[in-house]
Automatic annotation (TrEMBL):
CDD domains: nicotinamidase_related (cd01014). The keyword Hydrolase applies. One of its GO terms (molecular function) is hydrolase activity. This is Isochorismatase. Keywords: Hydrolase. PANTHER family: ISOCHORISMATASE HYDROLASE (PTHR43540:SF1), PEROXYUREIDOACRYLATE/UREIDOACRYLATE AMIDOHYDROLASE-RELATED (PTHR43540). It comes from Pseudomonas marincola. InterPro entries: Isochorismatase-like_dom, Isochorismatase-like_hydrls, Isochorismatase-like_sf. Residues 8-175 form the Isochorismatase-like domain. The lineage of its organism: Bacteria, Pseudomonadati, Pseudomonadota, Gammaproteobacteria, Pseudomonadales.
Amino acid sequence: MHTIELAAALLTIDMQQGIQRLPTPRNNPQAERHIAQLQQHWRARGWPLVHIRHISVDADSVFAPGQSGAAFQPELAPQASEAVFEKNVTDAFCHSALERWLHVRGIAKVVIVGVASENSVEATARTASNLGFATVVVTDACYTFGKTDFAGVLRSADDVHNMAMANLRDEYAQLHCTAELLSGD
C-alpha cells in the first residue's frame, strides 16, 4: 500500500485532443479512465492538481496553438481553480514556472500521469527527481505509441512504455499503479 502525502501534486501531462488523432497503436487503453479517477481522488481531498499543455512551435503539429488539438480533452480538463502550465518542449519544467509554483506552495512530491511515456512523462519525471522532488509515475495512467528504435526495429507500444518505466524505476521515480494510489489513504 502506498500513501500520498497532502503535499503531493498530481501532474497531468499533455492530455489534449490532438493526442487522440495519432494513428499509431498505443498501450494502456484505460489510461484516460485512470487519470480521471486520480483527478477525482485529488479533487475530493483538496490536493493540488496541475495540468500541462503542449503548445507546439510547429504549425503542422496536432498541438499547434489556436486549433482544436491544443485544447484539453473535456473529461480531463482543468477546473478553474487548478494550475495550467504550457510547454513547447518535452519537459514540463523547462521554460515554465512549474518548479517555482511547487516550491512556493511547499509541494515536495509530484505524481505524474499522461502521455507519452518515453517522451514528456519520462522527461518531466527525470527533471522532477533531479530538482529534488519525490517523484511517482503512475504506470497505468500514462501511455505511448509503437515506435521504430535506433536499429530500425519496430517496437510495440508496450515495449516502448515498459522501457520508459524501466528507465525511471528507482533512480528517478517510484512506480505505482492507479489502484495502489487510490487505496493508499
